[in-house]
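ASSEMBLY PREDICTION REQUEST
Request ID: AP-0331
Submitted by: J.K., bench scientist
Number of chains: two
Total residues: 600
Priority: normal
Notes: Please return the full assembly, not individual chains.
Input sequences:
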Amino acid sequence: MPVIEVRDGTVVLGGRPVLRGVDLRVEPGEVVAVLGANGSGKSTLVRTMMGLVPTVRGEVSLFDTPLDRFRDWQRIGFVPQRATAAAGVPASVREVVASGRLSRRPLLRPMRMADRAAVEEAIAAVGLADRAKDGVSTLSGGQQQRVLIARALAGEPELFVLDEPTAGVDQPSQQAFADALQVLVARGATIVLVAHELGPMAPLIGRTVVMRDGRVAYDGRPIVDAHELEHHHGHHHPDLQQPGSDYVPAVASPMDQEPEDR
Amino acid sequence: MEVLTYPFMIRALLAAVFTGLAAPAVGTYLVQRRLALMGDGIGHIAVTGVALGLLTGTSPTLTAVIVAILGSVLIEVIREKGRTSGDVALALLFYGGIAGGVLLTGLADQSAATLNAYLFGSITSISWADVWVTVALATVVIAVSAGLSPQLFAVAQDQEFARVAGLNVRFYNVLVAVMAAVTVTVAMRTVGLLLVSALMVVPVATAQQVSRGFRATLLLAMGLGTLASVGGLTVSGLVSADVNVAPGAAIVLLALAGFVVAWPIGMLLRRRQRLAEPFAADPGVGLADDTDHTVVPENHQHEHGDDCGHPAVPHGDHVDYIHDGHRHAPHGSHYDEH
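STATUS: Completed
Returned structure:
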């Protein structure tokens, strides 16, 4: 049973095609990095998976349920792409992380012991236990990003979707983040991660998807970053095909109507 | 002091307490979403509502509530759909609201003085029926903003995350807009439509000078709002024999005075916090390297430790202490300058 399934996912934003017939299946326990240049549609792809962007064509399913009927949101932990975790009113680290428990809490009920424990554990996992009471806006950019990751952790989800979690993040925070990710991988969580560069996360990645012009340009064995692919682009790139994979070379004829999108 | 026991003053004080609690409660969520001026916009639109009541001979409070709710939902829709041009659309609504109000008041053959009671408040002329409506509506607003605070907080903090957490973001956004509209009309009699936004925003701005968390800000703002509205009303009541002090203006100026006092305190707190920010260890400079460090020149008798009174600053693998304007750390028998 796939955790995420996108079939022929097509997204148009402001009259411009951003995703063009994307097919992607993520199986339980996979750690997938989505790479690509700016404007390649990598962020839109994960936002489409989360139902934040409507598709004009195609289907998205989460845990075998079509997106419009999906209600099991506590199974998902999402880290949106954000410059800051702060808003107009100060909020402490603990308060922001606590909102990660909302999908598990019934309306109008106070936090229970299990909720509090999960919040504290999530804060500790990203190495911010000593800053729990501090205002989020007093933290560095990297620490704020860690707060957002802790918020997703607090919900104890099975699937993590992270949109550029380490963009503009300092080195210690990147390492702290990679360590937190390692714990999740060990627990068997499924992870989909959009990134510009992988840095300390690289050893954890099991599969890489490279987006280009709204299409999946590469899907397979991990590569370090999208630039590696760009060097080979436009020619044969046999080194990118998984050795021993079930890759079948496409034999195209002039009358072939099948779009070669992959 | 006797003036405070007059029935009209007791009614006014009751209305002031509930308005003072409800306005900053909603205001906190507006400020969190960076919509501090939304209360102002709704206030302007409500002017048309009041005028509509004057024109049709129905209760201006009733028509104001209806028009304000419609206006606030419209603002919310424009904000959601409009994205970048949202503030211009809001401005158009503001001006339309106040111009429509003045026009309709003229058509209703009412003087500007009638409208003034709503623009700047007339808390001392409030009736028992008005008081109970105020208390009831304010109680609903306070109950909703406290009871649903985890949801409202999450939505205002990060809409995308809230949606993926399964919250109906549009519902909560409209809920805050409607609560703001109700609060504006409730506070209309206390501070007036033109000043109502001050009671929603200023206590929040004051509270966040000294608070670090959201809950603390919310509760402190509600306390400060009540203090300002009761205090301003009391002051205007006490001096009413000698000079004419408008209660609405007194309330808002008192709230602003609170901010003026809190601001330097906030500056000081933030400065102290910055001093305690950790320093990254300077790679390449080993502490044990005797050639590469500066010994504190003074004869240092004080033994630094937890709670010694000197701010402790994490620095790489050890802790510095701020002392007489410089940071230093123990090194063997002496202190190193950092």
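REVIEWER COMMENTS: The interface with chain B takes residues 47, 50-52, 71, 73-74, 76, 78-80, 82, 85, 87-92, 94-96, 98-100, 102-103, 105, 107-108, 133-135, 138, 148, 151, 155, 161, 172 of chain A (CB under 8 Å).
SIGN-OFF: pending second reviewer
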